[in-house]
Specification:
Chain lengths: 184, 184
């Protein structure tokens, strides 16, 4: 396997492990086992747990970039924002079990503190800046507040759905948010 | 000090420790140091970390009960709901630093799993049931959905404020939520 492929495969395994069992509990040894790559080989890609955390964070950000790039192919800002809401809603079964992929990682990295804690808010800052740009295209002067409102609702309902083990809460809120968006 | 007083003092110290450094990191030895009570004496009150977790959870629920009991002295359901919003907003400096006292504890206990994980959703279930009752008094047939919407917004913005170290996000959302409430 080429180095770039192996790096990419290891990043996917690391993201999956951190989502399933938490970043804190995830060791380089776990990653070796999950990815079937010898531990001595893992060290070539990740020297420390901080490097592993950074790779997980960047991989999650890449997922948002892919969603954003696809959304940009849609004509209307409202369609793009709707796609963003649908992305959470479609994941509601796993979100109710493990939390929002972005939000739960952000909460964990905040607790780690240091460089990872400081960098963690990119997981919210990038989507919010993009959402605000869409609201501005709708002519809204309160675009930042609308982006905050939407992101807070989605993050909050993800936490509640996880706490109650109930994906329907996300369905309810997503439907309301899409009505709200349509009426803007 | 009477046993009931000492128990109460230990519970306060435990809540403060868990909020400051996280429940996971909090040991019975930390509690002995924080409360200036000898560790042998601590074991009289809390035999295990699970018992400590339960006491912290019940103490946080008591705080909500006190807020609710005070709110019940207000005449109008909208005034009571406004008080609930203000409670988060007034705490915004500490929420932006450490997270929502209820939400961050719930997230931590969920990760602990077991009895504490199962019990943790009382931290959301009780306030949401109470909020829904207030919305029903306003004649709203969508009272449960409104309670979900309000709780999700407050929890979500608390997480965002913590991530960005910015209490003003809570101020912005609380002001919007109070306008929304007034217009219901």
């Amino acid at each position: 396997m080429a180095k770039a492929d192996k790096r990419s495969k290891l990043r996917r395994s690391a993201v999956e492990l951190a989502y399933r069992q938490g970043f804190r509990k995830t060791t380089l040894a776990d990653l070796a086992e999950e990815s079937k790559v010898p531990i001595g080989n893992i060290y070539y890609y990740f020297k420390t747990k901080d490097e592993l955390g950074e790779a997980i964070l960047e991989t999650r950000l890449d997922e948002f970039h892919q969603l954003r790039d696809f959304a940009q192919t849609l004509d209307l800002p409202k369609e793009r924002i709707r796609l963003f809401i649908d992305a959470t809603s479609e994941n509601r079964a796993v979100v109710a079990e493990r939390g929002c992929p972005m939000g739960s990682l952000c909460a964990e990295l905040l607790k780690e503190g240091g460089f990872l804690g400081e960098r963690s808010n990119a997981l919210f800052a990038e989507p919010m800046a993009w959402l605000a740009a869409q609201f501005r295209m709708l002519g809204r002067t309160d675009a930042d507040a609308l982006a905050l409102q939407l992101m807070a609702s989605l993050q909050g309902v993800s936490l509640l759905a996880r706490s109650f083990h109930d994906p329907r809460l996300i369905e309810t809120e997503a439907a309301r948010l899409k009505d709200w968006l349509a009426a803007l």
